[in-house]
Amino acid sequence: MYEKMYLILHAFAHYEIYGYPACQVIGLLIPVPLLLVARLTSSVAIKLLSIPIGLLFFGLPAVVDLFGDAIK
Amino acid sequence: MDQGQIQAPGDFIPTNIVNAAAKVENYYLLESSIGPLAKEFFDLEHVKAFSSVGLKSALHDSVVWVIGYVLCGGVVHFIQDNYLAAQTMMIFGWTVNASPFFWFTKMASFGFLATSTGCCVYMSQFYIGVVCKKAINTVFTSRALFLIVFSFLTFLALGILHKYVFNDIDILDACRLVYRIHPDFAERLYRFLAGYFRRSLFESAIVSLVASLLSILLPFLTALYFRYRKRSKKVLGIEVR
Prior knowledge:
The complex is a heterodimer of chains A (72) and B (241).
Chain A: H1 2-13, E1 16-17, E2 20-21, H2 22-29, H3 31-41, H4 44-64
Antiparallel strand pairs in A: 1-2
Helix pairs in contact in A: 1-4, 2-4, 3-4
Chain B: H1 17-34, H2 44-83, E1 89-91, E2 94-96, H3 100-108, H4 111-124, H5 130-165, H6 168-181, H7 183-229
Antiparallel strand pairs in B: 1-2
């Protein structure tokens, strides 16, 4: 069960669209709509977390690979 | 709250998730008796207080979970493996290969997360009216964002431990050092670290992501459920929007 979940996460983290890593593209783009939502809802929390969430997506492939040898 | 600030009777600033649920209930009663309030009623002070409730709840839940599930779970497993006689238990006729003490520790680590999720689910039945919606959205959104960030940080920390601290070579080196002092304990330690703890880091990382996602989704889904269930009727005299 854990392996299956890890493989799903791994597939998501390394998914590519036209050769570009989708996760990292999301990581670069997601702060823009999040900042927009923060502006509309005047939410300080979303504003503060827009950059960390972008970084989270950007770094996901590298972080997921830390457990690479757990499923061998 | 500042000393000089004027406060309406019953208008307290929430400091934890239970306070926030009580406050949302107050807003619900207020709006159902005098009609919908202006959205400016929920001012910046309230936004700040409700956001910090979400942050505190997510922080407490994550820290308690990590301490309970990873650290206490590891210690209990070591004790169970080496010193306890009863290593199996029966749950509704099934035999589980772990002591009751071990499963209790693992389940108890979800206590804070389950309690705060329960409070959020309770709050979600008041997802009606302008101020109630604003308050609930603030708590749910801030809690969800911080839970995502904390679960990702937990995943990262456990991944670093798995790859760089508790890898096979380092475990063997550490146990070799202990072997010079106490050979019997070194053997037990190796069996624990290589046989259980390294694998448990991987499993805990996956569980942290799944548990956080579930505790984020459940309150939003119940809010949606209550919203659509009450959409077509008036609730306590308020036209439901």
